[in-house]
Structure formats: C-alpha cells, structure tokens
Design a protein that fits this description.
Blueprint (H helix, E strand, L loop, with lengths): L1 E8 L4 E8 L4 E6 L7 E2 L4 E4 L1 E6 L1 E2 L2 E2 L9 H11 L4 E9 L3 H17 L5 E7 L21 H10 L5 E5 L10 H4 L4 E4 L6 H9 L2 E4 L16 H6 L5 E5 L7 H11 L4 E4 L11 E5 L2 E6 L2 E4 L5 E4 L3 H12 L3 H15 L17 E4 L5 E6 L2 E2 L1
Parallel strand pairs: 1-4, 1-5, 6-9, 9-10, 10-11, 11-12, 12-13, 13-14, 14-15
Antiparallel strand pairs: 1-2, 2-3, 5-20, 7-8, 16-17, 17-18, 18-19, 20-21, 21-22
Length: 378
C-alpha cells in the first residue's frame, strides 16, 4: 500500500514524496513520484495519526466504567469512533478511586484490550488519587490520599509491561519523598498540585517530566511568590499537556504558551469526558451531574466548567490556527511529543521505517482530510 503525492512531515524536514506500508508498519519513505498503484494525497500534508495521551473517554464510555463489565457496548462504540478523530493512540485515563477499584481496573486492562482491534490503547494514565485536595478539580476529595507504595507495587505486578503514567501532587503529604521509589516503574506527571517553585523544581529533577493539563488545577503565575507555573517556564525538559478547546485555556494563553515553551514541550490533549459525541443534555459523570452544552460540560445549573468534549482533531486545528505553527511543529504537539514522553517515538507518533501505519492527511489550514489506521483509509 502506498500514499503518493504527499508533503510528508518528518521530524527534521518535509519532503514531497510517497510512503509505502502494510497493515502493521511503515516500509519505506521516499522523495519523488512512484509508478506503482497508490492513494493520491494531492499535495496534502501527511503526518502520523494523532495521540490523545490524556482522555477519559467519549461516545458514552468512560474508562472508570472498566470497573465492571456492564458497559461493553459503550466501550466498543468508543473504540470504533475514536479513530474517526484522526487519533491512532490514546492512554486510558482514570480519575481518583478507591484501592479496590484501582486493583479492578488493573485486572480488567487486558479485558479492555481484547476489544481493541486497532490497538488504540497504549497504556494507562492514573490521574489520582495521589493529588492535592486544594486542586482536586472534579475528583472525589474523600478518596484523595498520599502515595501508597504497596498499592503501586500491586499495579506494577499486575501490569508489568504496560506503560503507566502517574499523576502526583509533589507537595501533598510527603509524596515527593517517594518519587525515587516509583520513578523507574511509572512515568510521573506533576499536576492537580499547589506546589511552590522549589518543590516543583525538585519533582522535575526526580523525573516528573510531564505536567498534567497545564494551567488547569494548578496555581496561577505569581510575580512575588513563585509557583509550579513559574518553575515550568524555567524548564526545557518537560512535556506540558495543553487542552486546546479555547475554553479551558484561552486562545491568547495558548499563543503565550507556544511562544514561551515552544513546540518541543507541548502535547495537545483533549481531557475529554464520556459526553463527547453525545447530544446536549444532562449526564452523570463520576457521580457528578453535568450539563453538556456544545463542546463543554458544566456543573448542573451553573456556568462552572466541569470538563470538555471537543474532538481531538478540532483541538489540533485550534492550536494550528491560533499559533500559526509550522507543520513540523504540529507533528510534535499532536503526536511526537506524547510518544517521546513515554519512550515510544520509534513505534508510533513518528514517520520512520518500522513505525505504525497510522496516518492523517491535513490541508494547509490544519484541517483533517483523511485518516489511515492499520494501513487502511477509514
């Protein structure tokens, strides 16, 4: 199988050429034209399929539902539809729950994968319970607790080869003192945190190299009392998640962030809820009543944002149009950086020989035109 006449976006250059692949991986990438039968990209930009590395679900399914087997239909619907957003990979993201439920989620991970025909689930993002009560967001404060080394060891034993990201508030009840004992088995992400500058910098030095949805559930930038935000701006080795629905973070701040951190440190995420793709109305999410109005969920009867549900390709498009970034920069923020943050950039999120044959075609306005998953146009 071949896609020809494409502007192929690589990490270090853009070439006019064609890409050959099978249903598993890229075989070769070459400049110029080919006489072999092919799909004509008609000069569109070819990038790796997007990676949504922080998403709670959509289309009626939420990953915390994996606690029981009553939601198989919703789970299958989600897996069938997520590729239509140009997304080839996600990390299943769960919110704060009990130790018992964490154990069940770990045990049921293989059950989820048995439904995953396109191999979209690439790991588990554990967002809570080891977060700050002061920056809990929509998490249940009764279940928030400090890092439990025994519980994390159990999860490691159940899923030894599965990629696992762990969100942690470093300042909360001596969490920071435990980083050295877990940073070899979990990719650490600082977030839902009220950390000051010094504590944040120590957490980054102890391999918390990811930031959970930048600006959201974090303190503000403070010119006199430096916070974790000030620390983030002084680092060059972080992957900062950024929700680009233009509501969680305003367009002006998205542009500021791009100019301050650069494309190498940003990974677009949706942080989408189960309401994505559903009709507007009232829903229960994690036991909370929310009103879905367009691309946002609000706490019932208020104008307080509870979450978002804008499809991922629209978030990528927003970022491109707000920042006017290059296509190589768009490659980084939409896929490559997320893959690199979990040491998987040789396998997906990149256009190199041997990487997954998942692609998107975009026009010059950053708009999704076609998606290929496992070598097939969907």
């Amino acid at each position: 199988m071949i896609i020809s006449n494409a502007k192929i976006v690589l990490e270090d250059q853009i070439i006019n050429g064609y890409i050959e692949f099978n249903d598993k991986q890229i075989i070769t990438i070459k400049k110029g034209k080919t006489s072999q039968p092919s799909f004509n990209a008609k000069g569109l930009y070819l990038l790796p399929a997007f990676i949504d590395s922080h998403t709670h679900g959509g289309y009626g399914f939420d990953f915390n539902m994996l606690i029981n087997h009553k939601h198989d239909q919703q789970m299958q619907s989600y897996l069938n539809k997520i590729n239509q957003e140009g997304v080839g990979s996600v990390l299943m993201t769960t919110v704060t729950c009990s130790d018992q439920d964490l154990n069940i989620l770990a045990s049921n991970y293989s059950y989820l994968k048995s439904f995953d025909q396109t191999n979209v689930i690439k790991g588990w993002y554990i967002e809570g319970p080891y977060i700050s009560e002061l920056r809990k967001g929509a998490h249940n404060p009764k279940l928030i607790r400090p890092i439990d080394l025994k519980e994390l060891q159990r999860i490691k034993n159940v899923l030894p080869k599965v990629t696992k990201i762990l969100a942690v508030a470093p300042e909360y009840k001596n969490n920071l003192s435990k980083f050295n004992k877990i940073n070899k088995d979990f990719f650490l992400a600082a977030g839902h945190s009220n950390a000051d500058y010094e504590t944040a910098m120590k957490s980054f030095d102890l391999k918390a190299r990811r930031v959970v949805h930048l600006y959201n559930a974090l303190p503000d930038f403070d010119k006199r009392h430096p916070t974790i935000i000030n620390a983030i701006f002084n680092r060059t080795d972080l992957t900062c998640e950024l929700i680009c629905d233009k509501a969680h973070v305003s367009p002006e701040v998205i542009l500021n962030t791009y100019k301050i951190l650069g494309a190498n440190q940003i990974a677009i995420i949706s942080d989408s809820l189960m309401t994505k793709g559903l009709k507007d109305g009232n829903y229960t999410v994690w036991g909370i009543q929310v009103d879905k109005r367009g691309a946002l969920d609000y706490l019932k009867g208020t104008n307080s944002i509870a979450g978002g549900n804008l499809p991922f390709h629209k978030q990528v498009e927003n970022f491109g149009k707000i920042t006017k970034c290059s296509m190589q920069e768009l490659l980084k923020v939409s896929s490559f950086n997320a893959a690199k943050s979990i040491n998987q950039q040789k396998h997906f999120g990149n256009l190199i020989k041997g990487a997954e044959s998942n692609f998107v075609l975009l026009n010059g306005k950053y708009e999704l035109q076609a998606t290929f998953i496992k070598g097939k146009k969907i």
